[in-house]
Amino acid sequence: MQTEFRHRSFAEILQIIKRRKWFLILPTISIGVAIAYVVLKLPNLYESTTLLVLKPPKISEKVVQSLSNEDMSQRVQAISQEVLSRSSLEPMIIKHGLFEEERQAGTDMALIVEKMRSNIKIEIEKTDNEKIPALRISYRDRSPEAARNVTAELASKFINTQIITSTQSAEITREFIEQRLAEAKKELDEIEKQRLEIMNQNVETLPESSQGLIAQLDGLRKREETISKEKETLIMERGRLNDGLRAL
């Protein structure tokens, strides 16, 4: 038994489409209505963003090695952990009236804090000057005012924590500079002592015809110059560091 297939004409195909048009239209309408319903039910979310420039301490690399990108990332991560802790976020939830529905429904505060944390985005970005990174802080909320206020407070917390961290780091650096200055003074005193000993031991061989004596004194002089330059650098950096501390 053979089955023959006949090619339908365009007019016949058009008639079939007309008879079955609702089979094509109804699913499309249903999908469109369903999507519109879901979109209408979604809460309006507003996002506020701020950008903070992370300025490294102005200390010469001759004294303290500058922070690498990895060091900066670790510092930002440490500050983020403190700013995003429950002890930091929970007062903000109460202060700004966040997640009222969830709180009135008796949702555990730990879950609410975690939900708020998921609405916060913190990213490190590079600025035009690649040596100075920037920190982008964003927060999403159903209220534009809450999004703006929370973002501003998060930025303020980052700045305050950074100031505390920078102050602690500066104090450590200042102690290091003071220690190096004391060591430099001790070395200079030792050089002066050695110079006097050499001259006293060779008082009879002066004047400067003694090549050995000249070489010893010249070596001491070069060491003295090197240490004196280092001491000048340390004093200058100490002054800059003190100015930076007063500006915090």
What's the N-to-C terminus distance? 96 Å
* Number of extended strands: 3
Mean of pLDDT: 74
Shape: elongated
Low-confidence parts: none
How much strand? 5-15%
Bin the helical content.
55-70%
Number of domains: 2
Largest sheet: 3 strands, antiparallel
Task: List the secondary-structure elements in sequence, H or E.
Answer: HHEHHHHEEHH
H/I helix tally? 8
Strand order of the largest sheet: 1-3-2
CATH class of the largest domain: Alpha Beta
Structural class: mainly alpha
CATH topology of the largest domain: Bacterial polysaccharide co-polymerase-like
CATH architecture of the largest domain: 2-Layer Sandwich
**What is the CA-atom radius of gyration, in angstroms?**
37 Å
Structure description:
The protein has 248 residues and is mainly alpha-helical. It folds into two domains: 46-171, 2-Layer Sandwich (Bacterial polysaccharide co-polymerase-like); 172-247. Helices cover 67% and strands 10% of the residues. The chain contains eight helices and three strands, in the order ααβααααββαα. Strands 1-3-2 form a three-stranded antiparallel beta sheet. Strand 2 (120-126) and strand 3 (133-141) form a beta hairpin. Helix 3 (69-83) crosses helix 7 (144-201) and helix 7 packs antiparallel against helix 8 (211-247). The longest helix is centred in the last third of the chain and has 58 residues, at 144-201. It is elongated and about 125 Å long. The N and C termini lie far apart (96 Å). The mean pLDDT is 74.
